[in-house]
Write a structure and sequence with these properties.
With 128 residues, the chain is of the alpha+beta class. The chain is built from three helices and nine strands, in the order αβββββαββββα.
Length: 128
């Protein structure tokens, strides 16, 4: 049996303190202290899928090139979630309809962006 107990995402930010404050204040995620000035934030259940890509983004870790990863937060009602984010002075891009559901992009205080979508397909965390 495979003994993976979770996933840890690294969000490379031009302003980590501002984005940590966003995760804490706007998304209200629970966190634990890490090294000085950094926190580790809890995430809801997750899933991972593969998509074809150019393979041009890599991050060095322990002398190895790790493949790129895109983070999408998942919600049940995208329009309501975007309204709630906007009420907290958080900007999102225009909502798009795609073959996998509705999606937008959350613009973080650092200027970085993460995805947000309402899936129209079955999710792996709902399958159990």
């Amino acid at each position: 049996m495979l003994m993976i107990s979770g996933a840890h995402f690294l969000l490379y930010s031009k302003d980590p303190e501002a984005d940590q404050q966003f995760l804490d204040d706007v998304l209200g995620t629970i966190s634990v202290p890490a090294e000085p000035g950094r926190r580790i934030f809890a995430l809801p259940p997750g899933e991972i899928a593969t998509h074809p890509g150019g393979g041009e983004f890599v991050q060095q870790h322990a002398g190895h090139d790790l493949m790129g990863l895109v983070l999408y937060l998942v919600c049940g009602d995208l329009r309501s979630t975007v309204e709630a984010l906007q009420a907290r002075d958080t900007h999102c891009t225009e909502i798009e309809e795609t073959e996998f559901g509705l999606k937008t992009t959350i613009i973080l205080p650092s200027g970085g962006e993460i995805g947000l979508y309402q899936p129209s397909h079955q999710t792996a965390f709902d399958a159990g």
